[in-house]
Amino acid sequence: MNIQMKLDSKPRNQSGLADLNSPFLHNFWYVAGYAEDFTRELHEKTFLNQSVVIYRTEAGDLVALQNRCAHRSFPLSESWLEGDDIRCKYHDAKYNPDGELIDIPCQTKCPKVQAIRKYPIKEIGPLVWIWMGVSDVGDENEIPDTSWLNKSAGWEFATSSYHIEGNYMLMMENLMDLMHIPFLHQDTFNFPRSYAQMEFEIETEGDEITYLRFPTEQYHRNGLFPDYLADEFEDRNYQGKSGGRFIHPGMMYGIQELRLKDAKEDEREEYIARIPHFVTPETETTCHYWFFYTRNFAQDDSALTEKLKKTLEIGFAEDKEAIYWLQKMQICDKTPYQEINFAADKSTILMRKVIQKLVDEEYQTPD
Ligand code: FES
Ligand SMILES: [Fe+2]
After folding, report:
1. Which of 7, 112, 244, 324 reaches 20 to 30 Å from 298, CA-CA?
2. Which residues have their alpha-adjacent CB atom under 5 A from ion ligand 2?
3. What is the pLDDT of residues 170-208, one digit of tens each?
4. What is d(CA 251, CA 308) in angstroms, rounded to the nearest whole number?
5. CA torsion 7→12→18→21, rounded to 10°?
6. In this predicted model, what pLDDT tens digit does every residue of 314-360 receive, in sequence order?
7. Which ligand 1 atom is the nearest neighbour of the CA of 91?
8. Ligand 1 environment, Cβ below 6 A
9. Model confidence, pTM
10. Which fold has domain 140-362?
């Protein structure tokens, strides 16, 4: 069959799979930034097409409010703090940290009404989470577990972030696709080409998806494992575990574990690393991206932490560039086309199915 005959004019949408044209999912806690990003300065960030102003009260508590003055839409982030309240720069209206209008200077009476939206916001370890849900009440128990981003619990981490010029689904699909690592990252992460062909297992638990490969050789030479340990592992008998876990539409983490099968009594047996990725949609064509490498070994080695940070930044800049090109192609090229899948796409297809299910649930119209 002529390929033209198989194509329809709809872009990309494989039946039942979410993609970059899918609407945003609101009922989740998303990462808003690092805890240290938010101070007594007014800080604007856009999440899911909603402009939000974030600051700390004099007591240090976080506040997140709709950034748009209810009078004539002046950005509150371009205004100023008066104690814990915000005073709009345009006509001087004042809002308290609950988003209530509490002063209108040109009139004597001010109806104390909730005039702008207040977003639940929560600081946990190095990160700040924001609830973008349809209701204004976010259940903090639903914030994903990040207990391995905790130095006092025996983990040490490196972290950095990028602004991505692409839809968040392109980023999430990239993160759930380990097939690309030996190719796109051939000069950085040093995974053997055979890695892409390895069988992998997939498990689901609710909406979470875990996929794992079990390499037993060469894997210790990957660029995300310290060189000096790789030397020690050269002739050792070990079991590797390599994969990732999708947690929700704005979070997954990479899994990298090496377990020495011939560990001596006084030797560490398990070298566990998590590579968590947090993605928060900004607009349809951009997203925020924070990444970490957290490990349970060599916690005192600050030079290693610095080196891992550099490696991640170089490697993930390759993803950032790839996502830019994917998004550009979607915007600029209107040739009808049809996506094809490879065998190793199982994990990304499953994730897109789960996200499509979540989209259907959020956007379902009542009978
Ligand atoms: S726009 Fe803010 S008070 Fe008028
Ligand atoms: Fe990548």
Report:
1. 244
2. 319
3. 999 999 998 899 999 998 888 888 888 888 999 999 999
4. 20
5. -130
6. 999 999 999 999 999 999 999 988 899 998 999 999 999 999 999 99
7. 3
8. 69, 71-72, 74, 88, 90-91, 93
9. 0.94
10. Naphthalene 1,2-dioxygenase Alpha Subunit; Chain A, domain 1 (3.90.380)
